[in-house]
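From the shared-data thread, chain only:
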Amino acid sequence: MEITTEMIKQLRAATNAPMLDCRKALQEADGDYQKAVDWLREKGMATAAKRADRVASNGIVEMYSHGGGRVGVMVEVNCETDFVARSQQFRTLAHEIALQIAAGAPKYIKADDIPAAELEHEADIARARAKEEGKPENILPKIVEGRLEKYKDEVCLMRQTYIRDESMNIEKLVLQNVAAIGENVLVRRFQRWELGESLS
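Structure, as tokens:
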């Protein structure tokens, strides 16, 4: 199938990928638009993963207030250069992450941040619940593991389902932006406040 300039432009507009990559993606996908998008996303993820160890010391502190001041979020998102820190795409990403924190109320950035004692406590609860439900002893470890993974998906920002697109999580959203921006992007820290929550 012939790859037209119009097809390349359309793919570039949708993905922000370089023109040459868009042409190659369409060639690899035999002109199938959706397959080309997937090809670019996979290529981007691989490239983004390689950038993960580069130092990210520039960035932005994004603040977001929701529900007429009922929920407030402050998040620090870092990148490698001041040039990218000022770009619209990077600022939009930081804003999207702040929205996610407001809506999803994560407690940690990634699963490694969860204290071992908390995971043990959650495992105990999952085990007790499975026993209560009358699950056989031999499958308890599998059930506990599954419920712990679900818990991590809920409390870790990077594992949460993106509020605007249920087909991806926040880690994938960040990796897509890393691929498009060409720099490592890191969510350094965040704080979420909710009016009237207990001060513990």
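The mean pLDDT is 88.
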